[in-house]
Amino acid sequence: MKVVVTRKIPGNGVKMLQDAGYEVVVGEQDGPMDRAQLLEFIKGADGVLGQLTDKVDEEYLNAAGPQLKIVANYAVGFDNFDLPALSSHNVIGTNTPDVLTEAVAEHAFALIMAITRRIVEAHKLARTQSSSFGPEVMLGMELKGKVLGVLGLGRIGSRVAEIGKAMGMNIIYYDIKQNPDFEAKVGAEFKATPDELLSISDVVSIHVPLLDSTKHLINADRLKMMKPTAYLVNTSRGPVVAEAELVEALKNKVIAGAALDVGETEPKWVPGLVELDNVVLTPHIASATNEARSAMGELAAENIIEVLNERPPKTPVKKP
Ligand code: NAD
Question: What is the layout of strands, in order, in the sheet containing 47-50?
């Protein structure tokens, strides 16, 4: 059987597939494959280990052919999957939950600390070699005693809440599902609407999946509900935040700042964003640790091996 891996990945994932006896072909290109290349590359594959930049839809499934049994996404988010198309082609979709939770939560916190303590601005200033200690130089916000609002208390959101708690923050959250066990464990407080959360948080960290119901969850109206001293951090998916409306809010000091790992039109940011000082940006690297990226490849490979042996995969995607 043939398994294709649409982009080079770190760790043992590819070796696991080779050891299982498949013909394994790895895309050697730099960056994501363009669409025509991808459709050609997956032709005849029984399994694909694919990237979140690969849109898996009717066209993709037709291009792969009827022998295709599994597309293993190298990501926990699977908004690149057309789920009805997968099920009508009898193709199983899998993702990589849990193994990247720590990496993403730690990155969310790195962004929270970078924006509230102005680390990137201070780094630029230090490199000018013209500034040193000053009572009013680079004042930021402390986290202890502040309110951390977690939007989406799933695997990653809960871990971010735990880290916030350890730093002395008061945790509130909004999710479509309330989690009384977590509330008791961490002392977190549930808010019945995102609006309520936004109006009292000092830091808002977003961890919802990208769905029709979460697209532009944060827009101009919701940004206006936030405190002018508050910060927005997004490590979920770009389109959850209306990025152009965020730029206006940042320019007009509607909120104090924003830190983003994901954008609406990656790798580009909307015009005006990169020039702002009250912004910290990273290029979709929240899961980019050696530990997480290796484990993601291994879990994706395990899923492929299970399905090609006609066993259930470890982590099938489910309709949200
Ligand atoms: P998860 O499924 O465990 O958690 C998502 C939570 O969001 C769930 O608790 C769900 O109930 C909640 N939710 C769904 N719709 C909602 C809505 N309309 N309003 C409020 N809450 C809602 O997923 P996870 O493993 O925590 O991952 C969360 C997301 O983070 C992924 O879907 C992915 O898009 C993103 N992510 C990004 C990176 C990155 O590199 N930046 C890495 C990993 C994950």
Answer: 23-26, 2-5, 47-50, 70-73, 92-94
